[in-house]
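Q: Second attempt. The first request was missing the SMILES, so the protein and zinc ion are both included now.
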Amino acid sequence: MEWRGTASALRSWQRAEALQLFEDTIRQMLPALGVAALRYQSLRLRTMRRRWGSCTMDGRITLNDWLIRVPDPCWQAVIAHELAHLMYMHHGPAFQHLARHLMPGYDEANRLLDQWTSVLTTPSQS
Ligand SMILES: [Zn+2]
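A: Got both inputs this time. The predicted holo structure:
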């Protein structure tokens, strides 16, 4: 048997808490999507090297687990971005308009998020 340490226990606790917080935020933003909100299926966290999040055509959202460590507006902007994909599978003006509508301060949060992008390609400590 392998003993599980406090660091590992803390990490899984932190991950579960973050997942709950992200899910709550999605639930708060969904009504602003109207019928497109019905496409939302599920959320999961995964370590990714090149992106903060993704959204499939059938409404499955994946968020990078690095988002646990960035300032709140940053992960909120990623959620707004992925939710806007429930309506538009492109990054055109209508998409941008919707993402800004879902999250006040969206552009500013994205500029801040850009400063964190280097952590994605840095080898993980854990
Ligand atoms: Zn996108």
